[in-house]
Design a protein that fits this description.
single chain; mainly beta; Porin; eight-stranded antiparallel beta barrel; 2 helices; 9 strands
Length: 196
Amino acid sequence: MVTAFCALFFIASAHAQQFDVAFGVGTVSGQQASDGFNNPDHTPQSIGGGGYPAFSGDFLFKKNFGVGGQVAWRGHQNFDIFGQPYRPILYDFNAIYAPMLGKRVQAEGQGGIGWESIRFYTPFLNCSGFTGTCTDFTSSNHFLIHVGGGLRFFLHGGLFVRPEGHLYFIHNNVEFSGPRVARYGVSIGYAFRSKD
């Protein structure tokens, strides 16, 4: 798996007009806990709050179009209404359009799919007889649709700062009061541009 990813990374970057990597921090907001009382299929608690570190990367191939992905997770565990510690993780893979708006500003719009993985931590180890691995959590995973965007402000060379916002529509997000989650924050990154 790692070998296949590395091969894809080098092939894609060899043909890319621009390759970007970034690290950022932000937070999320979700539907209010009271919204869960109106829908018996959802738990009356909000996913909102907490700090969310994030990593992202993308390849722009032709005429500012490309592909990318990102992962964001809650930095510290939270406790649900039943007292169990948990941590949401959001993954997404996107099509990207990123036109330059001048010499030092680049817009970025993206849309794609991914999943939410909620890790519920337990005081004991869960071991798999199939893989032989043990963890101290169980996961609840949900498919999501993602749209987002930001503005890259280039400070020097390829170094940029990007204020950004993301909206997730999470299917069957029953652990929280509804399916919508917004993530917003700022990232710092670097754009490797082709000399062509």
